[in-house]
# Entry
Amino acid sequence: MTFMDAMITPPVRRRGRPPKNPEGRLETRELLLRAGVAALTEKGFAATGLDDILGRVGVPKGSFYHYFDSKETFGAALIERYGAYFAGKLARHFDNTALPPLARLHAFIDDAKAGMARYAYQRGCLIGNLGQEMGALPESYRAQLGEVFADWQGRVAQCLEAARAAGEIAADADCRRLAAFFWIGWEGAVLRAKLEHSPLALDIFTEVFFAGLPRR
Amino acid sequence: MTFMDAMITPPVRRRGRPPKNPEGRLETRELLLRAGVAALTEKGFAATGLDDILGRVGVPKGSFYHYFDSKETFGAALIERYGAYFAGKLARHFDNTALPPLARLHAFIDDAKAGMARYAYQRGCLIGNLGQEMGALPESYRAQLGEVFADWQGRVAQCLEAARAAGEIAADADCRRLAAFFWIGWEGAVLRAKLEHSPLALDIFTEVFFAGLPRR
DNA sequence: ATTTATTTAGACGATCGGTCTAATATGACC
DNA sequence: GGTCATATTAGACCGATCGTCTAAATAAAT
# Structure
Protein backbone atom coordinates (compact mmCIF):
# COMPACT_ATOMS: atom_id res chain seq x y z
CA MET A 1 0.00 0.00 0.00
CA THR A 2 1.54 3.25 -1.12
CA PHE A 3 0.78 6.69 0.17
CA MET A 4 -1.59 7.20 -2.71
CA ASP A 5 -4.03 4.62 -1.43
CA ALA A 6 -6.93 6.06 0.43
CA MET A 7 -7.81 4.19 3.56
CA ILE A 8 -10.92 2.12 3.27
CA THR A 9 -11.72 1.65 6.94
CA PRO A 10 -13.02 4.95 8.22
CA PRO A 11 -11.25 5.65 11.48
CA VAL A 12 -13.53 6.56 14.34
CA ARG A 13 -13.91 10.26 13.95
CA ARG A 14 -14.92 12.07 17.05
CA ARG A 15 -15.24 15.65 17.93
CA GLY A 16 -12.74 17.23 20.23
CA ARG A 17 -9.08 16.93 20.91
CA PRO A 18 -7.92 13.44 19.98
CA PRO A 19 -6.26 10.99 22.44
CA LYS A 20 -2.47 11.09 22.67
CA ASN A 21 -1.89 7.55 21.41
CA PRO A 22 -1.23 7.84 17.71
CA GLU A 23 -1.20 4.05 17.56
CA GLY A 24 -1.71 2.85 14.02
CA ARG A 25 -4.35 5.51 13.54
CA LEU A 26 -3.79 7.36 10.30
CA GLU A 27 -4.10 11.02 10.89
CA THR A 28 -6.82 13.04 9.29
CA ARG A 29 -4.34 15.29 7.58
CA GLU A 30 -2.64 12.26 6.08
CA LEU A 31 -5.93 10.87 4.85
CA LEU A 32 -6.74 14.14 3.18
CA LEU A 33 -3.42 14.21 1.38
CA ARG A 34 -3.84 10.67 0.11
CA ALA A 35 -7.34 11.29 -1.08
CA GLY A 36 -6.14 14.50 -2.70
CA VAL A 37 -3.49 12.75 -4.73
CA ALA A 38 -5.98 10.11 -5.80
CA ALA A 39 -8.56 12.66 -6.86
CA LEU A 40 -6.19 15.06 -8.60
CA THR A 41 -4.35 12.37 -10.55
CA GLU A 42 -7.70 11.12 -11.79
CA LYS A 43 -9.58 14.28 -12.50
CA GLY A 44 -7.26 17.22 -12.14
CA PHE A 45 -7.40 20.23 -9.88
CA ALA A 46 -10.22 22.26 -11.33
CA ALA A 47 -12.59 19.34 -11.71
CA THR A 48 -12.05 18.15 -8.17
CA GLY A 49 -14.17 19.77 -5.52
CA LEU A 50 -13.27 19.77 -1.87
CA ASP A 51 -16.38 17.74 -1.24
CA ASP A 52 -15.03 15.08 -3.60
CA ILE A 53 -11.93 14.66 -1.52
CA LEU A 54 -13.76 14.93 1.76
CA GLY A 55 -16.32 12.37 0.68
CA ARG A 56 -13.68 9.78 -0.20
CA VAL A 57 -12.40 9.61 3.33
CA GLY A 58 -15.40 10.73 5.34
CA VAL A 59 -13.77 13.85 6.68
CA PRO A 60 -15.99 16.87 7.26
CA LYS A 61 -15.23 20.22 5.76
CA GLY A 62 -14.42 21.78 9.07
CA SER A 63 -11.47 19.46 9.44
CA PHE A 64 -10.09 20.39 6.07
CA TYR A 65 -9.85 24.03 6.96
CA HIS A 66 -8.33 23.12 10.26
CA TYR A 67 -5.41 21.45 8.49
CA PHE A 68 -5.11 23.62 5.42
CA ASP A 69 -5.59 27.31 4.85
CA SER A 70 -7.16 26.89 1.45
CA LYS A 71 -7.44 24.65 -1.56
CA GLU A 72 -4.39 26.41 -2.95
CA THR A 73 -2.30 25.55 0.09
CA PHE A 74 -3.58 22.01 -0.06
CA GLY A 75 -2.55 21.69 -3.70
CA ALA A 76 0.92 22.96 -2.91
CA ALA A 77 1.24 20.31 -0.22
CA LEU A 78 0.20 17.65 -2.70
CA ILE A 79 2.80 18.74 -5.24
CA GLU A 80 5.47 18.72 -2.57
CA ARG A 81 4.53 15.26 -1.37
CA TYR A 82 4.13 13.77 -4.82
CA GLY A 83 7.45 15.21 -5.96
CA ALA A 84 9.22 13.81 -2.93
CA TYR A 85 7.57 10.42 -3.35
CA PHE A 86 8.87 9.96 -6.85
CA ALA A 87 12.22 11.44 -5.97
CA GLY A 88 12.52 8.67 -3.41
CA LYS A 89 11.49 6.07 -5.93
CA LEU A 90 14.09 7.35 -8.38
CA ALA A 91 16.78 7.42 -5.73
CA ARG A 92 16.00 3.89 -4.64
CA HIS A 93 16.36 2.48 -8.13
CA PHE A 94 19.32 4.57 -9.16
CA ASP A 95 21.24 3.67 -6.02
CA ASN A 96 20.88 0.00 -6.79
CA THR A 97 24.40 -0.67 -8.00
CA ALA A 98 23.57 -4.35 -8.39
CA LEU A 99 22.19 -3.36 -11.77
CA PRO A 100 23.99 -1.57 -14.60
CA PRO A 101 22.85 2.06 -14.98
CA LEU A 102 20.46 1.65 -17.89
CA ALA A 103 18.85 -1.32 -16.19
CA ARG A 104 18.26 0.89 -13.15
CA LEU A 105 16.37 3.36 -15.29
CA HIS A 106 14.43 0.49 -16.75
CA ALA A 107 13.62 -0.74 -13.28
CA PHE A 108 12.24 2.66 -12.35
CA ILE A 109 10.11 2.66 -15.46
CA ASP A 110 8.75 -0.77 -14.64
CA ASP A 111 7.98 0.41 -11.15
CA ALA A 112 6.14 3.48 -12.37
CA LYS A 113 4.34 1.41 -14.95
CA ALA A 114 3.19 -1.00 -12.25
CA GLY A 115 1.91 2.01 -10.34
CA MET A 116 -0.32 2.95 -13.23
CA ALA A 117 -1.47 -0.63 -13.70
CA ARG A 118 -2.48 -0.79 -10.04
CA TYR A 119 -5.13 1.81 -10.71
CA ALA A 120 -6.14 0.37 -14.06
CA TYR A 121 -4.48 3.27 -15.89
CA GLN A 122 -7.03 5.70 -14.55
CA ARG A 123 -4.62 7.88 -12.64
CA GLY A 124 -1.96 9.95 -14.32
CA CYS A 125 0.94 11.96 -12.99
CA LEU A 126 0.00 14.71 -10.61
CA ILE A 127 2.77 16.95 -11.89
CA GLY A 128 1.83 16.47 -15.50
CA ASN A 129 -1.85 16.94 -14.75
CA LEU A 130 -1.29 20.20 -12.95
CA GLY A 131 1.16 21.34 -15.60
CA GLN A 132 -1.53 20.97 -18.20
CA GLU A 133 -3.96 22.92 -16.04
CA MET A 134 -1.57 25.73 -15.18
CA GLY A 135 -3.56 28.20 -17.24
CA ALA A 136 -6.22 28.14 -14.55
CA LEU A 137 -4.10 27.41 -11.47
CA PRO A 138 -2.47 29.60 -8.83
CA GLU A 139 0.59 31.07 -10.48
CA SER A 140 2.74 29.94 -7.56
CA TYR A 141 2.34 26.35 -8.72
CA ARG A 142 4.30 27.01 -11.88
CA ALA A 143 7.64 27.36 -10.15
CA GLN A 144 6.89 24.50 -7.82
CA LEU A 145 6.09 22.16 -10.69
CA GLY A 146 9.20 23.32 -12.50
CA GLU A 147 11.30 22.47 -9.48
CA VAL A 148 9.89 18.98 -9.29
CA PHE A 149 10.69 18.37 -12.95
CA ALA A 150 14.16 19.79 -12.45
CA ASP A 151 14.74 17.44 -9.54
CA TRP A 152 13.47 14.35 -11.33
CA GLN A 153 15.38 15.31 -14.44
CA GLY A 154 18.59 15.81 -12.53
CA ARG A 155 18.32 12.34 -11.06
CA VAL A 156 17.79 10.75 -14.45
CA ALA A 157 20.68 12.77 -15.86
CA GLN A 158 22.95 11.37 -13.18
CA CYS A 159 21.85 7.86 -13.98
CA LEU A 160 22.56 8.46 -17.65
CA GLU A 161 25.97 9.83 -16.80
CA ALA A 162 26.68 6.60 -14.97
CA ALA A 163 25.56 4.76 -18.09
CA ARG A 164 27.92 6.86 -20.14
CA ALA A 165 30.76 6.18 -17.76
CA ALA A 166 29.97 2.48 -17.98
CA GLY A 167 30.05 2.65 -21.77
CA GLU A 168 26.35 1.84 -22.14
CA ILE A 169 25.74 5.01 -24.12
CA ALA A 170 27.99 7.13 -26.31
CA ALA A 171 30.83 8.99 -24.66
CA ASP A 172 29.63 12.28 -26.13
CA ALA A 173 26.00 11.83 -25.13
CA ASP A 174 24.35 14.94 -23.67
CA CYS A 175 22.90 13.35 -20.56
CA ARG A 176 21.05 16.40 -19.30
CA ARG A 177 19.36 16.80 -22.64
CA LEU A 178 18.49 13.14 -22.80
CA ALA A 179 17.06 13.31 -19.29
CA ALA A 180 14.91 16.26 -20.30
CA PHE A 181 13.80 14.29 -23.34
CA PHE A 182 12.95 11.36 -21.13
CA TRP A 183 10.63 13.34 -18.89
CA ILE A 184 9.03 15.20 -21.75
CA GLY A 185 8.20 11.92 -23.40
CA TRP A 186 7.30 10.04 -20.25
CA GLU A 187 4.70 12.58 -19.30
CA GLY A 188 3.26 12.33 -22.77
CA ALA A 189 3.17 8.56 -22.43
CA VAL A 190 1.40 8.71 -19.08
CA LEU A 191 -1.14 11.05 -20.60
CA ARG A 192 -1.86 8.65 -23.43
CA ALA A 193 -1.90 5.60 -21.19
CA LYS A 194 -4.53 7.27 -19.04
CA LEU A 195 -6.55 8.35 -22.04
CA GLU A 196 -6.50 4.84 -23.48
CA HIS A 197 -6.67 2.99 -20.17
CA SER A 198 -3.81 0.94 -21.49
CA PRO A 199 -0.06 0.49 -21.00
CA LEU A 200 0.58 0.60 -24.73
CA ALA A 201 1.88 4.17 -24.81
CA LEU A 202 4.21 3.47 -21.89
CA ASP A 203 5.61 0.44 -23.66
CA ILE A 204 6.07 2.18 -26.97
CA PHE A 205 7.77 5.15 -25.40
CA THR A 206 10.08 2.99 -23.33
CA GLU A 207 11.15 0.78 -26.18
CA VAL A 208 11.75 3.54 -28.70
CA PHE A 209 13.47 5.71 -26.09
CA PHE A 210 16.03 3.03 -25.27
CA ALA A 211 16.45 2.09 -28.91
CA GLY A 212 17.16 5.70 -29.79
CA LEU A 213 19.80 6.34 -27.15
CA PRO A 214 23.16 7.16 -28.73
CA ARG A 215 25.21 4.01 -28.37
CA ARG A 216 28.47 5.31 -29.76
CA MET B 1 -5.46 34.74 -38.73
CA THR B 2 -6.27 31.13 -37.99
CA PHE B 3 -9.59 29.75 -36.89
CA MET B 4 -8.34 29.85 -33.33
CA ASP B 5 -8.27 33.62 -33.22
CA ALA B 6 -11.28 35.15 -31.64
CA MET B 7 -12.70 38.12 -33.44
CA ILE B 8 -12.03 41.40 -31.78
CA THR B 9 -14.75 43.53 -33.34
CA PRO B 10 -18.04 42.57 -31.74
CA PRO B 11 -20.61 42.30 -34.50
CA VAL B 12 -23.86 44.10 -33.87
CA ARG B 13 -25.87 41.64 -31.87
CA ARG B 14 -29.60 42.11 -31.85
CA ARG B 15 -32.43 40.03 -30.64
CA GLY B 16 -34.56 38.20 -33.12
CA ARG B 17 -34.05 36.54 -36.43
CA PRO B 18 -31.05 38.10 -38.15
CA PRO B 19 -31.14 39.78 -41.59
CA LYS B 20 -30.48 37.55 -44.58
CA ASN B 21 -27.22 39.15 -45.70
CA PRO B 22 -24.44 36.93 -44.42
CA GLU B 23 -21.92 39.39 -45.85
CA GLY B 24 -18.54 39.12 -44.19
CA ARG B 25 -20.27 38.79 -40.85
CA LEU B 26 -18.78 35.95 -38.86
CA GLU B 27 -21.50 33.81 -37.53
CA THR B 28 -22.14 33.56 -33.85
CA ARG B 29 -21.63 29.84 -33.90
CA GLU B 30 -18.25 30.30 -35.51
CA LEU B 31 -17.24 32.88 -32.95
CA LEU B 32 -18.18 30.52 -30.14
CA LEU B 33 -16.10 27.72 -31.60
CA ARG B 34 -13.05 29.93 -31.95
CA ALA B 35 -13.37 31.28 -28.46
CA GLY B 36 -13.90 27.74 -27.20
CA VAL B 37 -10.66 26.49 -28.70
CA ALA B 38 -8.81 29.45 -27.27
CA ALA B 39 -10.24 28.97 -23.80
CA LEU B 40 -9.90 25.19 -23.64
CA THR B 41 -6.33 25.12 -24.93
CA GLU B 42 -5.42 27.63 -22.25
CA LYS B 43 -7.32 26.40 -19.26
CA GLY B 44 -8.90 23.07 -20.05
CA PHE B 45 -12.49 21.98 -20.07
CA ALA B 46 -13.37 21.87 -16.40
CA ALA B 47 -11.80 25.20 -15.54
CA THR B 48 -13.48 27.01 -18.40
CA GLY B 49 -16.89 28.35 -17.67
CA LEU B 50 -19.39 29.14 -20.34
CA ASP B 51 -19.26 32.73 -19.19
CA ASP B 52 -15.55 32.74 -19.96
CA ILE B 53 -16.17 31.78 -23.54
CA LEU B 54 -19.20 33.98 -23.91
CA GLY B 55 -17.40 36.96 -22.45
CA ARG B 56 -14.54 36.69 -24.93
CA VAL B 57 -16.83 37.29 -27.88
CA GLY B 58 -19.72 39.17 -26.34
CA VAL B 59 -22.27 36.49 -27.00
CA PRO B 60 -25.06 36.06 -24.47
CA LYS B 61 -25.71 32.77 -22.81
CA GLY B 62 -28.99 32.24 -24.54
CA SER B 63 -27.26 32.15 -27.89
CA PHE B 64 -24.94 29.42 -26.77
CA TYR B 65 -27.75 27.05 -26.02
CA HIS B 66 -29.36 27.89 -29.29
CA TYR B 67 -26.35 26.61 -31.19
CA PHE B 68 -25.31 23.78 -28.91
CA ASP B 69 -27.30 21.37 -26.83
CA SER B 70 -24.88 21.45 -23.94
CA LYS B 71 -21.31 22.07 -22.93
CA GLU B 72 -20.69 18.42 -23.76
CA THR B 73 -21.93 18.81 -27.33
CA PHE B 74 -19.91 21.97 -27.67
CA GLY B 75 -16.77 20.18 -26.54
CA ALA B 76 -17.34 17.42 -29.07
CA ALA B 77 -17.62 20.02 -31.82
CA LEU B 78 -14.36 21.57 -30.67
CA ILE B 79 -12.55 18.23 -30.76
CA GLU B 80 -13.87 17.56 -34.24
CA ARG B 81 -12.82 20.96 -35.51
CA TYR B 82 -9.43 20.95 -33.86
CA GLY B 83 -8.69 17.45 -35.11
CA ALA B 84 -9.61 18.40 -38.65
CA TYR B 85 -7.59 21.60 -38.48
CA PHE B 86 -4.39 19.78 -37.64
CA ALA B 87 -5.16 16.97 -40.05
CA GLY B 88 -5.23 19.63 -42.75
CA LYS B 89 -1.98 21.11 -41.55
CA LEU B 90 -0.34 17.69 -41.61
CA ALA B 91 -1.68 16.93 -45.06
CA ARG B 92 -0.47 20.24 -46.42
CA HIS B 93 3.09 19.67 -45.24
CA PHE B 94 3.27 16.00 -46.07
CA ASP B 95 2.00 16.58 -49.58
CA ASN B 96 4.79 19.02 -50.26
CA THR B 97 6.98 16.81 -52.41
CA ALA B 98 9.37 19.67 -52.97
CA LEU B 99 10.91 18.63 -49.66
CA PRO B 100 12.30 15.20 -48.73
CA PRO B 101 10.01 13.31 -46.32
CA LEU B 102 11.83 14.02 -43.06
CA ALA B 103 12.05 17.69 -43.95
CA ARG B 104 8.29 17.68 -44.42
CA LEU B 105 7.84 16.40 -40.89
CA HIS B 106 10.25 19.03 -39.70
CA ALA B 107 8.26 21.67 -41.53
CA PHE B 108 5.10 20.57 -39.77
CA ILE B 109 6.87 20.76 -36.44
CA ASP B 110 8.10 24.26 -37.19
CA ASP B 111 4.60 25.24 -38.16
CA ALA B 112 3.11 23.85 -34.95
CA LYS B 113 5.88 25.45 -32.94
CA ALA B 114 5.13 28.80 -34.52
CA GLY B 115 1.52 28.29 -33.54
CA MET B 116 2.52 27.98 -29.90
CA ALA B 117 4.85 30.96 -30.14
CA ARG B 118 2.01 33.08 -31.52
CA TYR B 119 0.21 32.73 -28.22
CA ALA B 120 3.35 33.11 -26.12
CA TYR B 121 3.27 29.40 -25.21
CA GLN B 122 0.14 29.87 -23.20
CA ARG B 123 -2.05 27.56 -25.22
CA GLY B 124 -1.47 23.85 -25.47
CA CYS B 125 -3.01 21.14 -27.60
CA LEU B 126 -6.75 20.76 -27.21
CA ILE B 127 -6.54 17.01 -27.69
CA GLY B 128 -3.78 16.59 -25.13
CA ASN B 129 -5.54 18.87 -22.68
CA LEU B 130 -8.77 16.96 -22.86
CA GLY B 131 -6.95 13.65 -22.74
CA GLN B 132 -5.44 14.63 -19.43
CA GLU B 133 -8.84 15.67 -18.13
CA MET B 134 -10.69 12.57 -19.30
CA GLY B 135 -11.21 11.39 -15.74
CA ALA B 136 -13.79 14.13 -15.32
CA LEU B 137 -15.07 14.41 -18.87
CA PRO B 138 -17.98 12.86 -20.74
CA GLU B 139 -16.96 9.32 -21.52
CA SER B 140 -17.89 9.80 -25.18
CA TYR B 141 -14.87 12.06 -25.60
CA ARG B 142 -12.49 9.19 -25.02
CA ALA B 143 -13.18 7.49 -28.31
CA GLN B 144 -13.29 10.78 -30.15
CA LEU B 145 -9.90 11.81 -28.84
CA GLY B 146 -8.53 8.38 -29.68
CA GLU B 147 -9.73 8.75 -33.24
CA VAL B 148 -8.02 12.09 -33.63
CA PHE B 149 -4.74 10.64 -32.40
CA ALA B 150 -5.15 7.66 -34.71
CA ASP B 151 -5.68 9.97 -37.65
CA TRP B 152 -2.73 12.21 -36.87
CA GLN B 153 -0.57 9.20 -36.17
CA GLY B 154 -1.51 7.55 -39.43
CA ARG B 155 -0.47 10.62 -41.35
CA VAL B 156 2.90 10.79 -39.65
CA ALA B 157 3.38 7.07 -40.22
CA GLN B 158 2.85 7.59 -43.93
CA CYS B 159 5.38 10.37 -43.96
CA LEU B 160 7.88 8.15 -42.21
CA GLU B 161 7.22 5.39 -44.69
CA ALA B 162 8.07 7.82 -47.44
CA ALA B 163 11.25 8.62 -45.54
CA ARG B 164 12.04 4.93 -45.35
CA ALA B 165 11.40 4.48 -49.05
CA ALA B 166 13.71 7.42 -49.71
CA GLY B 167 16.41 5.86 -47.57
CA GLU B 168 16.29 8.59 -44.94
CA ILE B 169 15.61 6.09 -42.19
CA ALA B 170 16.43 2.42 -41.81
CA ALA B 171 14.74 -0.05 -44.13
CA ASP B 172 13.45 -2.07 -41.19
CA ALA B 173 12.10 0.90 -39.26
CA ASP B 174 8.67 0.37 -37.70
CA CYS B 175 7.01 3.53 -38.98
CA ARG B 176 3.73 3.08 -37.19
CA ARG B 177 5.51 2.64 -33.91
CA LEU B 178 7.72 5.62 -34.56
CA ALA B 179 4.69 7.70 -35.42
CA ALA B 180 3.04 6.69 -32.16
CA PHE B 181 6.25 7.59 -30.35
CA PHE B 182 6.26 10.94 -32.07
CA TRP B 183 2.80 11.90 -30.90
CA ILE B 184 3.34 10.58 -27.40
CA GLY B 185 6.42 12.71 -27.09
CA TRP B 186 5.08 15.73 -28.91
CA GLU B 187 2.13 16.01 -26.57
CA GLY B 188 4.50 15.79 -23.65
CA ALA B 189 6.61 18.53 -25.18
CA VAL B 190 3.62 20.80 -25.71
CA LEU B 191 2.63 20.25 -22.09
CA ARG B 192 6.07 21.28 -20.87
CA ALA B 193 6.33 24.20 -23.24
CA LYS B 194 3.08 25.54 -21.90
CA LEU B 195 4.10 24.95 -18.31
CA GLU B 196 7.37 26.76 -18.85
CA HIS B 197 6.07 29.35 -21.29
CA SER B 198 9.03 28.45 -23.43
CA PRO B 199 9.86 26.58 -26.64
CA LEU B 200 12.70 24.71 -24.95
CA ALA B 201 10.82 21.44 -24.53
CA LEU B 202 9.67 21.53 -28.16
CA ASP B 203 13.22 22.05 -29.32
CA ILE B 204 14.68 19.34 -27.14
CA PHE B 205 12.07 16.84 -28.18
CA THR B 206 12.46 17.63 -31.84
CA GLU B 207 16.20 17.39 -31.84
CA VAL B 208 16.48 14.19 -29.85
CA PHE B 209 13.62 12.60 -31.77
CA PHE B 210 15.33 13.13 -35.11
CA ALA B 211 18.70 12.14 -33.71
CA GLY B 212 17.24 8.90 -32.40
CA LEU B 213 15.54 7.79 -35.60
CA PRO B 214 17.02 4.52 -36.87
CA ARG B 215 19.24 5.50 -39.76
CA ARG B 216 20.28 2.07 -40.96
C1' DA C 1 -51.25 40.71 -41.62
C1' DT C 2 -50.31 36.66 -39.72
C1' DT C 3 -47.42 32.86 -38.82
C1' DT C 4 -43.00 30.72 -38.44
C1' DA C 5 -38.06 30.54 -37.77
C1' DT C 6 -34.31 32.33 -35.47
C1' DT C 7 -31.77 34.60 -31.95
C1' DT C 8 -31.10 36.98 -27.49
C1' DA C 9 -32.12 38.22 -22.59
C1' DG C 10 -31.93 36.96 -18.30
C1' DA C 11 -34.11 34.18 -14.46
C1' DC C 12 -33.23 29.87 -12.29
C1' DG C 13 -31.77 26.13 -9.07
C1' DA C 14 -27.72 23.58 -7.94
C1' DT C 15 -23.28 23.52 -6.50
C1' DC C 16 -18.78 25.47 -5.72
C1' DG C 17 -14.85 27.07 -2.71
C1' DG C 18 -14.24 29.20 1.32
C1' DT C 19 -15.43 31.00 6.08
C1' DC C 20 -17.26 30.98 10.43
C1' DT C 21 -19.24 29.75 15.06
C1' DA C 22 -20.53 26.35 18.17
C1' DA C 23 -19.92 21.94 20.12
C1' DT C 24 -17.05 18.43 21.93
C1' DA C 25 -13.21 16.05 23.43
C1' DT C 26 -8.50 15.57 25.60
C1' DG C 27 -4.18 17.45 27.76
C1' DA C 28 -1.96 20.35 31.07
C1' DC C 29 -1.74 22.60 35.32
C1' DC C 30 -2.64 23.51 39.95
C1' DG D 1 -10.36 16.52 40.40
C1' DG D 2 -11.49 21.02 38.80
C1' DT D 3 -10.34 24.41 35.59
C1' DC D 4 -8.50 26.28 31.57
C1' DA D 5 -6.14 25.77 27.18
C1' DT D 6 -5.70 23.18 23.01
C1' DA D 7 -7.25 20.43 19.27
C1' DT D 8 -10.72 18.71 16.26
C1' DT D 9 -15.29 18.11 14.18
C1' DA D 10 -20.09 19.57 12.80
C1' DG D 11 -22.43 21.87 9.66
C1' DA D 12 -24.82 26.37 8.61
C1' DC D 13 -23.77 29.98 5.70
C1' DC D 14 -22.18 33.32 1.84
C1' DG D 15 -21.20 35.18 -2.58
C1' DA D 16 -19.86 33.53 -6.96
C1' DT D 17 -20.45 30.71 -10.63
C1' DC D 18 -22.04 26.52 -12.80
C1' DG D 19 -25.06 24.73 -16.87
C1' DT D 20 -29.96 24.96 -18.24
C1' DC D 21 -34.21 26.72 -19.60
C1' DT D 22 -38.21 29.77 -20.78
C1' DA D 23 -39.93 33.94 -22.55
C1' DA D 24 -39.30 37.94 -25.40
C1' DA D 25 -37.94 40.06 -29.63
C1' DT D 26 -37.10 40.35 -34.45
C1' DA D 27 -36.88 39.12 -39.44
C1' DA D 28 -38.46 35.91 -43.00
C1' DA D 29 -42.02 33.49 -45.22
C1' DT D 30 -46.69 33.16 -46.61
Notes: The longest helix of chain A spans residues 140-165. Chain A has nine helices and no strands. The radius of gyration of chain A is 19 Å.
